[in-house]
Amino acid sequence: MEDAMPKLTPAERKLGLGPCEVCGKEKDHTTDECPYLEIIPKGEEGNVCEMYAVVCKGCGLEGGHPGKSWTGCAVLKYCSRCFVVGDHLYANCPNLEPEKRERLRQIKVKHHRLGINF
Ligand SMILES: [Zn+2]
Ligand SMILES: [Zn+2]
Ligand SMILES: [Zn+2]
């Protein structure tokens, strides 16, 4: 089985990689390996591609908590209500009634204060 695949050094393997769908970097890592999925260094939020949203790692709030200390990570914009990928998060679904959206937000903020991670 293994012989069917040409053996590549890690450097050669990298050269075969296309642009990462999260940060757009080429020849460095696959989309699944993108470091932004774990953590986005401060100031690099703008490098995240349109299909992905910058959210607070603690509570999942899109855009994080400006003015406070928070850690961001990139998540694929996926709405489990519309089954749409790359457009919006469920919490920001335009097809969700505003009251429900607001409630969802408040629950998340509350959990965040209690230190519960999803
Ligand atoms: Zn990447
Ligand atoms: Zn948060
Ligand atoms: Zn939606």
Structure explained in plain terms:
- With 118 residues, the chain is of the alpha+beta class.
- The chain has a domain of 79 residues.
- It is 19% helix and 12% strand.
- The chain is built from two helices and four strands.
- The strands form two sheets. The chain has a two-stranded antiparallel sheet with strand order 1-2. A two-stranded antiparallel sheet has the order 3-4.
- Strand 3 and strand 4 form a beta hairpin.
- The longest helix is centred in the last third of the chain and has 16 residues.
- The protein is elongated, with a radius of gyration of 18 Å.
- The termini are far apart.
- One zinc ion binds next to loops.
List the keywords:
19% helix, alpha+beta, two-stranded antiparallel sheet, two-stranded antiparallel ribbon, binds zinc ion, 118 residues, 12% strand
What does the secondary structure layout of this molecule look like, with pairings?
Blueprint lengths: L9 H6 L36 E5 L15 E5 L1 E2 L4 E2 L12 H16 L5
Antiparallel strand pairs: 1-2, 3-4
Bound molecules: zinc ion (3 copies).
The site of one zinc ion has 7 residues, from loops.
Q: If you average the pLDDT, what whole number results?
A: 89
Helical/strand content category: alpha+beta
- Read across the widest sheet, the strand sequence of neighbours is 1-2
- Global geometry: elongated
**Strand fraction band?**
5-15%
Helix content percent band: 10-25%
What value does the Rg take, in angstroms?
18 Å
User: Helical element count?
Assistant: 2
Pattern of helices and strands: HEEEEH
Query: What are the bound molecules?
Result: zinc ion
Spans of at least 5 consecutive residues with low confidence: none
Q: How many strands, what sense, and barrel or not for the largest sheet?
A: 2 strands, antiparallel
* Annotation, overall tally of beta strands: 4
Measure the end-to-end span: 39 Å
